[in-house]
């Protein structure tokens, strides 16, 4: 197996290769004067199982095109098979037609990867794993919730309660509570598809006098986590922290989150940013060793 370090995830890919004890292929990249992406594998992948690691965080379109070009380069260079690791998968949230005349963007991304002949796709806490079944492509979705919860456990959070800001994330809070103890709770959340306005109701869980960690797959504008934190503080929570797999937020959103009473936000390096305090490299290396 050879790990190819896509430009968006070169550091993570290098660490995956080190932990999986396999070769690493660098990638040359530049922009043409008109803005198009140029990409080239800086090493041979012929007759090797190539694993391309490329996250598709902002600028999503550039990172996505770089990924597609890398897959084509590896296939043309006669890799024996190509696995793509997309730690954060852009367009995954548009997993159905919410309003008439919209595309299903997540399916479009997968159909292109399948047409390019990828063998399998590995993601981390992808928003909607069901879409992969619709496109009939081999898929492994890993969860970073365990490593995020263990990060808090190591910091002395044994007995803290785990909360999810919506019904879909409830399984994340439940998984985290098995590590932290302290039980779990969840909110129900509705988002107006036109205005984007969010409303939330605390459905289950005790907040009074508790240390709480809110777990979610994504923090973007921070609106979801802020609303959950305010409700939990209002219900008597002692301290509230937030943890997510993918931190898409700006520094301004981060400051607003702290302003809502959250003590700290912790994320993984699926998107390398100032809140990335936990690495998914070990999780990926272990999985790739098993799969390839
Ligand atoms: C939505 O279902 C996701 O799980 C996240 O809760 C959402 O994407 C967070 O977005 P924001 O930070 O903009 O509220």
């Amino acid at each position: 197996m050879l790990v190819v370090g896509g430009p968006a995830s070169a550091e993570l890919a290098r660490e995956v290769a080190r932990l999986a004890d396999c070769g690493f292929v660098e990638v040359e990249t530049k922009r043409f004067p008109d803005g198009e992406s140029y990409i080239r594998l800086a090493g041979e992948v012929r007759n090797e199982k190539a694993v391309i690691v490329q996250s598709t965080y902002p600028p999503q379109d550039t990172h996505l095109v770089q990924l597609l070009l890398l897959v084509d380069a590896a296939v043309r260079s006669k890799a024996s098979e190509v696995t793509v690791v997309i730690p954060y998968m852009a367009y995954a949230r548009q997993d159905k037609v919410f309003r008439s005349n919209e595309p299903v963007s997540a399916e479009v991304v997968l159909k292109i990867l399948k047409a390019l002949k990828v063998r399998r796709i590995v993601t981390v806490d992808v928003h909607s794993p069901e879409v992969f079944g619709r496109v009939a492509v081999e898929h492994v979705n890993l969860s970073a919730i365990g490593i995020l919860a263990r990060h808090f456990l190591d910091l002395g959070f044994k007995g803290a309660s785990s909360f999810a800001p919506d019904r879909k994330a409830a399984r994340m809070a439940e998984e985290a509570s098995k590590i932290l103890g302290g039980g779990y709770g969840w909110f129900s959340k509705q988002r107006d598809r036109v205005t984007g306005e969010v409303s939330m109701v605390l459905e289950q869980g005790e907040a009074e006098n508790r240390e709480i960690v809110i777990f979610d797959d994504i923090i973007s504008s921070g609106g979801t986590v802020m609303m959950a934190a305010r409700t939990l503080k209002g219900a008597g929570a002692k301290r509230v922290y937030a943890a997510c797999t993918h931190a898409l937020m700006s520094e301004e959103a981060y400051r607003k989150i702290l302003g809502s009473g959250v003590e700290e936000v912790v994320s993984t390096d699926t998107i390398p940013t100032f809140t990335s305090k936990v690495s998914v490299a070990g999780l990926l290396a272990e999985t790739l060793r098993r799969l390839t």
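The CA atoms of residues 146 and 256 lie 27 Å apart. The pocket of ribose-5-phosphate is lined by residues 165-166, 169, 216-224 (CB under 6 Å).
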